[in-house]
Model the fold of this input.
Amino acid sequence: MYNSKIIGLGHYVPDNVVTNDDLSKIMDTNDEWIQERTGIKERRWALENSEDTTSGMGIKAAKVAIERAGIDKDDIDFIVFATLSPDMYFPGPGVQVQHALDIKTVGALDVRNQCSGFIYAISVADQYIKTGMYKNILVIGSELHSHGLDKTTRGRGVSVIFGDGAGAAILTREEDNTKGILSTHLHSQGEHAEELVLVAPGMGKRWVNDILRDNDPNDESYFPYMNGQFVFKNAVVRFSEVIMEGLGKNNLGKEAIDMLIPHQANLRISQFIQKKFELSDDQVFNNIQKYGNTTAASIPIALTEAWEEGKIKEGDVVVLAAFGSGFTWGSVIIKW
Ligand code: UT7
Done:
């Protein structure tokens, strides 16, 4: 059995910055409410009809990760793409990456685990590398939220939170079992599936034909819904549990954490976890202030920025953790 390790990271965000004040011009909200409840100051929203699609942003992030990994695109054995906002209902964006990067006909897997998507994607890639089936895997998390949000006062509880962007990582084989990804931990609780949900279009409840037929201006089924307080309460519990689980599995205490990269759901959640694990400001990386919640892209964007800023060094224990729609949650423990 091998370990896997991250050897290249990249991210991409659209140029278009949308501040809280910009939002207050199109809906009844304000900078004070958004900053106080979420920590967000601004987010990137791709311009309509730009190249910044979910696959397009993912491809840009992937190119950076591949270059930094120092491998050739033809060394990539498998692609894993996490998103809740694919360009097309099917096929998922994994195959678009294979085509755009002109990679040979390797497998491309799409992961549908929302905010935990990148954690799930890393876990999948890690298993393939552990068994020796693949050596180099491209893992991408990318989201284009802005085109699908309800940007009226009706949708303000959700739409002010989400932003667009992408991050990517190259995982490769590590022969030393004390290094790289030490363990991954995944969970789900489907009884809460509809507490953070996008119902339509879905074959189960509201398909595109139904929406067009009814043409109901009050139809909210094709906008994301979130029971914010309920999600928040579950998030702080599950984040803590799954970080503890990962540390415990590796016989590590909380003092072993050199860098925690939490999914950027809400700065208040990150601060709660920071306090609970008694971490200093430089042991937790947050960039939700600049980007909002970019769902499957948030951890790879944050990981890339932390690495670029020199905040992750060889030998560090790096913990990734996420919680979100499903509910699904998970963690990854890395010895960098
Ligand atoms: O990434 C996946 C996981 N996601 C999360 O973990 C998110 C978890 N939840 C949260 O982060 C928070 O619940 C939110 C930031 C979404 C909301 O904060 P909250 O403190 O739970 O606010 P609330 O939903 O209870 O709303 C409080 C008030 C309401 O008004 P009333 O009923 O008290 O008069 C809302 O209508 O704030 C109002 N409100 C807003 N006001 C100004 C809701 N959204 C806005 C807004 N601007 N954008």
User: Anything to note?
Assistant: The chain has a mean pLDDT of 97. Residues 180-335 form a domain with the Peroxisomal Thiolase; Chain A, domain 1 fold (CATH 3.40.47.10). The chain is about 30% helix and 25% strand.
